[in-house]
């Protein structure tokens, strides 16, 4: 369509402004970054311990099963919280912040419990 015709019919085209980045979105990104880093470090630690245990001849299935069970349980809890109606009514940045803050202690707890099982 001709731009002049479009402007006469609908008014001149104005691109939508991008949504502003708020402090809440930055806090949510920081919370999820901390969560991801602890999850990566914990997984590395559990894999290193499992490797050393297997080199020593010890069974490692229980250690890996325990860690995996904790991670799956944590993901299920986060999914259940995310699907609650009051949480779904929150704006997206606040929802991400809430879930990020709830997810932060899950990886260290999983590593601690797995460590207590391994030792």
Quick recap:
This protein has six helices and no strands.
Q: What is the typical, i.e. mean, pLDDT? A: 87
Number of strands: 0
Strand content: under 5%
Q: Determine the structural class based on helices, strands and strand pairing.
A: mainly alpha
Q: Give the low-pLDDT segments.
A: none
What's the structural blueprint in terms of helices and strands?
Elements: H1 3-10, H2 23-55, H3 61-82, H4 85-88, H5 92-103, H6 106-118
Helix pairs in contact: 2-5, 2-6, 3-5, 3-6
Could you walk me through the main structural features you see in this protein, from its secondary elements to its overall organization?
With about 120 residues, this protein is an all-alpha fold. The chain contains 6 helices and no strands. The longest helix has about 35 residues, at about 25-55. The radius of gyration is 23 Å and the shape is elongated. The termini are far apart. The mean pLDDT is about 85.
């Amino acid at each position: 369509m001709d731009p002049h015709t479009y402007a006469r019919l609908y008014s001149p085209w104005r691109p939508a402004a991008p949504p502003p980045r708020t402090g809440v979105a930055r806090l949510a990104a920081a919370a999820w970054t901390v969560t991801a880093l602890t999850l990566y470090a914990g997984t590395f630690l559990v894999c290193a311990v499992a490797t050393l245990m297997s080199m020593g001849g010890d069974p490692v299935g229980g250690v890996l099963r325990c860690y995996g069970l904790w991670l799956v349980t944590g993901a299920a809890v986060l999914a259940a919280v995310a699907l609650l109606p009051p949480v779904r009514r929150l704006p997206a940045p606040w929802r991400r912040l809430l879930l990020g803050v709830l997810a932060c202690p899950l990886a260290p707890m999983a590593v601690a419990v797995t460590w207590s099982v391994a030792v």
